[in-house]
C-alpha cells in the first residue's frame, strides 16, 4: 500500500519514459529526437531519486543530460541542416525493426510474467546510501571494494581524451 | 484514506517501462540510417540496462550497492564511448560529407 503521491509520481515517471522513448525513435527530425532523449534521461534520473539513490540521479543528470546530450546536439548541428527531415523508411527495413523489437519485448515480457511471483515483491526498507559509505566502497581494496574498476575507468577516460583529440584533429 | 486506492508498486511495474525503452532502442537501431540517430538508440538501450541494475539492486539486495556501482561505471563508460563515437562520426562527415550508413560503404576514400 503506497501513498497517493508515490503512485502519482510513479505514473508520471513511467508514462514519460514510455512516451518519450517511443517519440525518440519515431520522430523524423534528429534534433527533436535528441530533445526527447533528454526527457527520457531526466525521467530516468527521477526514477533513481525515487529509488533512494540521490547520488546516482545527480550523476545521471550531470553526465547524461549535461554532457552527452550536448555532444549529440553539437554533432547534429555540425553534420546536417536543422530543417532536414530524415528520409522515410523503406517498408522491409521498418518491418524488420518492428518484428525484432516486438519479438525481443515479447520474449522478455513472457519471462517477466513467468516470474510474476518473484517480480511481485515490494520495495524493502533501505539504509541511506551516504557519501561516506559510497566513497569507502569505491576506494577500498577489500571484499566488495571497487578500487580496481575505479582506476581502470580513470585510464579509460584518459585514453578517451587522447583518442578524441587524435581522431578529431584537422590533418 | 484515498478512496480505496490500493496499488502496490512492485518490481514488475518498474521493469515494464525499462523493457519498452529497450524495445524502442532496438527498433531505432535497426531502422535508422543516420549514424547519430543510431547512437541515440544505443543510448536508450544502455539507459534501460542501467535502470535494471538499479531496480534489482534496490528490490533484491537493498543492503548492498553492487548494482549502483555497476550503473555508475556504466554511465562513465557510456560517456567515453559516446564522445569517441561522435568524434569518429564528425571525422567521417568531414571526409565523406555524409553520415548516412548506406552511402558510406568504403573504408578508404
Description:
The complex is a heterodimer of chains A (171) and B (109). With 171 residues, chain A is mainly alpha-helical. Chain A contains seven helices and no strands. Chain A has two domains: 1-84, NADH-ubiquinone/plastoquinone oxidoreductase chain 6, subunit NuoJ (Four Helix Bundle (Hemerythrin (Met), subunit A), Up-down Bundle); 127-171. Chain A has helices at residues 4-26, 30-50, 54-79, 91-114, 116-119, 131-138, 147-168. Chain A is globular. The longest helix of chain B is centred in the C-terminal third of the chain and has 31 residues, at 66-96. Chain B has one domain (13-96): Helix Hairpins, CATH 1.10.287. Chain B contains three helices and no strands. The radius of gyration of chain B is 19 Å and the shape is elongated. Chain B starts with 10 loop residues before the first helix and ends in a 13-residue tail after the last helix. Chain B has 109 residues and is an all-alpha fold. The chains are: A mainly alpha (171), B mainly alpha (109). At the A-B interface, helix 1, helix 2, helix 3, helix 4 and helix 6 of A face helix 1, helix 2 and helix 3 of B.
Q: What topology does this entry show?
A:
The complex is a heterodimer of chains A (171) and B (109).
Chain A: H1 4-26, H2 30-50, H3 54-79, H4 91-114, H5 116-119, H6 131-138, H7 147-168
Helix pairs in contact in A: 1-2, 2-3
Chain B: H1 11-31, H2 35-60, H3 66-96
Helix pairs in contact in B: 1-2, 2-3
CATH structural architecture of the largest domain in chain A: Up-down Bundle
Mean pLDDT of chain A: 87
Strand content of chain A: under 5%
- Specify the overall morphology of chain A: globular
Measured distance between first and last alpha carbons of chain A = 63 Å
Total domains of chain A: 2
What is the beta-strand fraction of chain B? Answer: under 5%
Number of strands of chain A: 0
Instruction: Pick out the low-confidence regions of chain B.
Output: none
Oligomeric state of this protein? heterodimer
Q: State the CATH topology of the largest domain in chain A.
A: Four Helix Bundle (Hemerythrin (Met), subunit A)
| SSE pattern of chain A | HHHHHHH
Series of H and E elements of chain B = HHH
Q: Domains counted in the coordinates of chain B: how many?
A: 1
Amino acid at each position: 500500500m503506497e501513498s497517493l503521491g508515490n503512485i502519482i509520481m510513479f505514473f508520471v515517471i513511467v508514462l514519460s519514459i514510455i512516451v518519450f522513448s517511443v517519440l525518440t525513435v519515431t520522430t523524423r527530425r534528429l534534433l527533436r529526437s535528441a530533445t526527447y532523449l533528454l526527457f527520457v534521461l531526466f525521467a530516468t534520473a527521477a526514477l533513481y531519486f525515487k529509488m533512494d539513490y540521490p547520488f546516482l540521479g545527480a550523476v545521471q543528470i550531470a553526465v547524461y543530460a549535461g554532457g552527452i546530450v550536448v555532444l549529440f546536439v553539437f554533432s547534429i548541428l555540425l553534420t546536417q541542416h536543422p530543417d532536414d527531415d530524415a528520409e522515410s523508411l523503406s517498408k522491409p527495413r521498418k518491418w524488420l525493426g518492428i518484428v525484432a523489437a516486438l519479438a525481443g519485448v515479447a520474449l522478455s515480457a513472457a519471462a517477466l510474467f513467468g516470474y510474476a511471483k518473484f517480480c511481485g515483491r515490494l520495495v524493502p526498507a533501505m539504509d541511506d546510501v551516504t557519501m561516506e559509505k559510497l566513497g569507502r566502497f569505491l576506494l577500498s581494496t577489500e571484499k566488495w571494494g571497487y578500487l580496481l574498476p575505479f582506476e581502470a575507468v580513470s585510464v579509460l577516460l584518459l585514453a578517451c581524451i587522447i583518442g578524441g583529440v587524435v581522431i578529431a584533429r584537422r590533418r | 484514506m484515498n478512496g480505496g486506492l490500493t496499488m502496490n508498486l512492485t518490481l514488475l511495474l518498474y521493469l515494464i517501462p525499462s523493457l519498452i525503452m529497450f524495445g524502442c532502442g532496438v527498433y531505432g537501431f535497426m531502422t535508422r540510417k543516420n549514424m547519430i540517430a543510431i547512437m541515440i538508440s544505443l543510448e536508450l538501450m544502455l539507459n534501460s540496462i542501467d535502470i535494471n541494475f538499479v531496480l534489482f539492486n534496490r528490490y533484491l539486495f537493498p543492503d548492498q550497492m553492487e548494482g549502483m556501482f555497476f550503473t555508475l561505471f556504466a554511465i562513465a563508460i557510456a560517456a567515453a564511448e559516446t564522445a569517441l563515437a561522435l568524434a569518429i562520426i564528425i571525422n567521417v562527415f568531414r571526409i565523406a560529407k555524409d553520415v548516412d550508413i548506406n552511402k558510406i560503404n568504403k573504408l578508404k576514400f
